[in-house]
Specification:
The protein has about 325 residues and is α/β, with parallel strands linked by helices. Helix content is about 45%, strand content about 15%.
């Protein structure tokens, strides 16, 4: 079954069928209903690779993320998808699991699909792959990697400021034995948080610190906390690279009979929804995932004049959010 058969059945042009399938408002409701009935009657499934407006603009966007199990990435995806649907676009997604080889495969599949724009929300990006994306001639938005160029935009988070604020806050509460729990310490956006911690902690006189790295997620956070505590080091505060790992840290502490925040304070990063609803509610650093999703969509769907011009960079400033998982060192609540 093809587009021409649907058009003939609905007594409209193939262009009108395309407009209906691309969810454009220029089609009268009665005509739209007739086309959709023809689509249903004929069991027509549009070729997504061919769905485009006059002028050849593909109405499918792509997003590649490092870990869609982490609510941070999923929140960005959800906002981007909502914006896409509201404007008649479809969104396809791929998950890499921080695997560079999987990232390469996903990028090449997206390019082969001729997506109208691609959001690459990953940490494990290699320079050669950035160059390959630049040569693809499709609008691309990177997250904390890459350099702004024609059709290439970048959204960066000021992670350094966020970690510095956390260390300063904990020091003000009297904490002098700190620990940092992270993941993938060789990857840019995550390593920046760890490096900022190791740069900042010793700047406060009398402060001891340790770092432990494990896989991203609650299991990794739990294993990292176990390794830290089994080593004999007893921090008064643990800073986690993200909230997702902090959930596992909280569980390990609880199972060891250690009270949060009476015995040890815990902080996260990102301010995912679970941070507010876990127990105790997590002190964290807020990153506006909805704003990031909106920014990504705007960059990917810019008009042709803007899309062919030099891309742009947006720096997102984080904000410390204090909740119940932190307290003055050694002071019971």
């Amino acid at each position: 079954m093809n587009l021409e058969a649907v058009a003939k059945r609905a007594r409209v042009s193939t262009a009108t069928v395309s407009r209906v399938l691309n969810n454009l408002d220029v089609v009268k409701p009665a005509t739209r209903a007739r086309v959709m009935k023809a689509v249903a009657d004929l069991n027509y499934y549009p070729n997504l690779n061919a769905r485009s407006l006059a002028g050849g603009k593909n109405r499918t966007l792509g997003m590649i993320a490092s870990n869609l199990e982490n609510p941070f990435f999923f929140d960005v995806f959800r906002t981007l998808e909502a914006d896409a649907h509201a404007r008649g676009y479809e969104l396809v997604a791929a998950n890499t699991g921080y695997n560079p080889e999987q990232l390469l495969n996903s990028v090449r599949l997206m390019i082969g699909r001729r997506v109208g724009g691609l959001a690459v929300i990953v940490s494990e990006m290699e320079p050669d792959l950035i160059l390959e994306l630049e040569r693809s001639n499709i609008p691309v938005v990177f997250y904390d990697v890459g350099i702004v160029k024609p059709k290439i935009s970048n959204i960066r988070v000021n992670y350094r400021r966020g970690i510095e604020e956390v260390v300063k806050y904990l020091h003000g509460l009297g904490h002098r034995k700190l620990a940092f729990i992270g993941h993938h310490s060789t990857l840019g956006p995550t390593s920046e948080r760890e490096k900022t911690f190791t740069d900042t902690a010793p700047s406060y006189e009398g402060t001891e610190y340790r770092t432990v790295v494990n896989q991203d997620g609650p299991d990794g956070g739990r294993e990292a906390a176990r390794e830290l505590l089994d080593s004999g080091y007893r921090p008064t505060a643990i800073i986690c690279v993200n909230d997702f790992m902090a959930l596992g840290v909280l569980r390990e502490l609880r199972e060891r009979g250690m009270r949060v925040p009476e015995d040890v304070s815990v902080t996260g990063f990102d301010d995912i929804t679970l941070a507010e609803y876990c127990y105790p509610a997590l002190t964290t650093v807020h990153i506006p995932r909805d704003r990031i999703g909106h920014l990504v969509f705007e960059a990917l769907t810019a008009d042709s004049d803007r899309a062919s011009a030099t891309g742009h960079e947006v720096v997102v400033e984080p904000e410390l959010v204090v909740r119940q998982s932190t307290a003055p060192a050694g002071v019971p609540q």
